[in-house]
Design brief:
Number of strands: 15
Number of helices: 2
Largest sheet: 13 strands, mixed
Distance between the termini: 42 Å
Structural class: mainly beta
Helix content: under 10%
Radius of gyration: 19 Å
Length: 228
């Protein structure tokens, strides 16, 4: 099993979280040529190194994370300060294609995200990103999806996610088409008013799903639909 994550960022003050179930050795190869290792189950670190004592002047903008632990890396998170001014700065490129065991990804400010190799992915959260598209056709194990403040996504096809149970879409003003799997196991959906075809009404996004389809899913799963 190959477990590698590549990160290239220009955000100041971000934090990464990585979890290796059962523990294992995490190797970080930094863009400045330095290599660090830590034996952990879960670690949160800054881009100035796994060792928090490394000074600010040595911080790096890219890193390759890898492990040879049996269960591999299952959780990856990019945690960022959620201030209004921060939302306008920095971008991150993440490559998780060589980490098939990943089950949970949280990320922000991403410009590209390919998930076709992450067939074990169960939870995905994306915030403040410039993604134009999101292909989830190969993520049949996905159970929870949150997308916040992604201005450029126009279509979201979830027919390849039959096990999806939790869906949150907030402040995605360009989203015009949302397609759900008829066999969906959804039990919670939340939209806000900024996620609509024209933004004129809170109900307008439902017309892109198809109200009859949504009602069938809602009645079958006793689903709660929430608006903000």
């Amino acid at each position: 099993m190959i477990n590698e994550i590549f990160i290239d960022d220009d955000i100041w003050g971000n934090f990464y979280a990585v979890e290796i179930p059962g523990g294992g050795t995490l190797t970080a190869e930094w863009g400045n040529g330095e290599t660090e290792q830590a034996t952990v189950k879960m670690i949160m670190f800054e881009r100035n190194g796994l060792n928090r004592e490394i000074g600010y002047e040595r911080q790096c903008n890219n890193v390759r994370l890898s492990t040879d632990a049996e269960q591999g890396i299952t959780i990856f998170g990019l945690l960022t300060p959620w201030t209004y001014s921060f939302c306008h700065y920095g971008q991150v490129s993440i490559n998780t294609s060589r980490c098939p065991s990943l089950q949970k990804i949280w990320c922000a400010k991403v410009t590209s995200l390919s998930l076709s190799k992450n067939i074990n992915l169960r939870e995905l959260g994306i915030w403040y990103s410039d993604l134009n598209e999101l292909d989830l056709n190969d993520n049949r194990a996905l159970r929870a999806l949150e997308i916040h403040n992604c201005d450029n996504i126009r279509e979201l096809d979830l027919t390849g996610c039959p096990d999806l149970r939790y869906l949150v879409l907030r402040s995605c003003p360009s989203l015009r088409t949302l397609v759900l799997n008829e066999a969906s196991k959804l039990d919670y959906v939340s939209f806000n008013y900024n996620t609509a075809i024209a933004g004129e009404s809170e109900d307008e996004l439902l017309t892109t799903i198809g109200p009859e389809q949504l009602m069938r899913i809602a009645m079958r799963n006793r689903m709660d639909i929430e608006y903000f």
